[in-house]
Write a structure and sequence with these properties.
Blueprint lengths: L4 E4 L16 H13 L4 E3 L7 H9 L4 E6 L8 H19 L4 E6 L10 H13 L3 E7 L6 H7 L4 E5 L6 H4 L2 H7 L3 E5 L16 H4 L2 H14 L3 H10 L6 E4 L4 H9 L15 H4 L7
Parallel strand pairs: 1-2, 1-8, 2-3, 3-4, 4-5, 5-6, 6-7, 7-8
């Protein structure tokens, strides 16, 4: 398992997720040291994660390889400006991170490849790869509606997608097998659904309490089986054999230590497969 863990940095010195937790700079240093000790060598970040890039740059000392996202392009950008703007954004991030090359650059809005500027965006990503600023290029997705069109048009190295005990679309839609047949790496994120799977129903924000049927079923299963929700969420992911990377965020050092102790074992998983997008897609929670 440890060789597949990728440190998530969305809560580095800023609040993130339902619990609004944040890891301060001193603890990030401890987190890095513990990760290196356990042979974890990848960090997932983004220019949109506040000071994350600067913090990683100060503490990394070239110990970790970095996966990041392409900063969002201006809405009305002209086609002739795309290549220059993307390269500028990449160089700014590399300087903040104090590295010369990304392990992978992900396009945060995969559907932009199907826009009128799609071909230019892809060519620009390919150019960034050719000149050695990134080893791989990929896309970050939230659903699978347009993935077929994207993969038919473009060759990519990696796909990052959500996967957790409630949101099993990667598996149930058959896309996991299809992606692997194309020799594309799969990295999964949101394995705790931004922390909601680790807290009691009573502590959920009002806009999520309307899904009381789903949360009640989850809590009932946890209670009846007398298990730790953190362990169950991790074991569900560990029992998926075709994954190449697991992006893991944590609340604190102690929780990270718990994560490191989990080992793959057979486990009777609850049969949840929620299709309600308003529940499993955090982008919809505010609506």
């Amino acid at each position: 398992m440890l060789n597949k863990i990728i440190l998530g940095s969305a809560n580095f010195n800023q609040t993130y997720g339902i619990r609004k937790n944040s890891i301060k700079k001193n603890d990030i240093k401890k987190l890095f040291n513990l990760a290196i000790k356990n042979k974890i060598k990848l960090i997932d970040t983004s220019p949109s994660y506040n000071e994350s890039e600067k913090i990683i740059g100060k503490l990394n000392n070239k110990r970790f390889k970095i996966i990041s996202k392409i900063a969002k392009l201006p809405k009305n950008i002209k086609k002739v400006e795309i290549k220059k703007k993307l390269r500028e954004n990449v160089i700014i991030s590399l300087r903040k991170l104090k590295i010369k090359k990304f392990e992978c650059l992900l396009l945060h809005n995969a559907n932009s490849l199907l826009s009128k500027n799609g071909n230019e965006i892809y060519k620009s990503l390919q150019d960034i790869k050719k000149i050695g600023l990134t080893k791989k290029i990929g896309i970050s997705i939230y659903d699978y509606k347009t993935l077929g069109k994207i993969l038919n048009r473009y060759k990519i190295d990696l796909i990052q997608a959500p996967l957790n005990i409630l949101d099993q679309r990667l598996i149930t839609t058959g896309w996991q097998k299809k992606i692997k047949k194309k020799n594309i790496e799969i990295h999964v994120r949101s394995i705790f659904l931004q922390g909601t799977l680790l807290i009691k129903k009573s502590k959920l924000p009002k806009n999520l309490k309307k899904f009381k049927k789903e949360w009640s079923a989850w809590e009932k299963w946890i209670s009846e089986n007398k298990v730790n929700p953190l362990h169950v969420c991790l074991l569900f992911i560990l029992n998926q054999s075709k994954l190449d990377g697991i992006v893991l965020g944590c609340d604190n050092i102690n929780q990270f230590k718990q994560i490191l102790k989990i080992k793959k074992r057979k486990f009777l998983m609850p049969k949840f497969n929620i299709r309600n997008i308003k529940l499993i897609d955090p982008r919809k929670w505010s609506s």
